[in-house]
Design brief:
With about 100 residues, the protein is α/β, with parallel strands linked by helices. The protein is about 40% helix and about 15% strand. A 3-stranded parallel β-sheet has the order 1-2-3, covered by helices on one side. Helix 4 (about 70-80) links the parallel strand 2 (about 65-70) and strand 3 (about 85). Helix 2 crosses helix 3 (about 50-60). The relative contact order is 0.17.
Length: about 100
């Protein structure tokens, strides 16, 4: 197993696919809140199963799009009601300033 397949295999089955926690994401959102519009839009690059995106969506009442390369992670994130896009974070398919 090589490259990204090894990484996906390593993270498969874990509840979170990134450093941090829901509480650290919430704390960062609380710090950012005064500088955001009333209904912000956010893009979670490399979202994995969408734990951070889900926390941001709830904490900020934001529209959050999760972007990842790995379809099984996106399927799990989408199953919790998150908007997801299968794409490479090096070339997100969005116009500048969308988020």
């Amino acid at each position: 197993m090589q490259g990204k397949d090894a990484i996906f295999s390593l993270y498969a089955g874990l509840p979170r696919h990134a450093p941090g926690s829901s509480s650290s994401t919430q704390r960062a959102a609380d710090i950012a809140r005064p500088h955001l519009p009333a209904r912000p839009m956010a893009l979670d690059l490399g979202c994995g199963v969408g734990r951070s995106a889900e926390t941001l969506s709830k904490t900020l009442s934001a529209t959050v799009v999760g972007l990842d390369l790995y379809r099984p992670f996106l399927t799990e994130a989408g199953g919790r009601g998150l908007r997801v896009v299968e794409a490479d974070m090096a070339a997100p398919p969005f116009a500048p300033s969308t988020f």
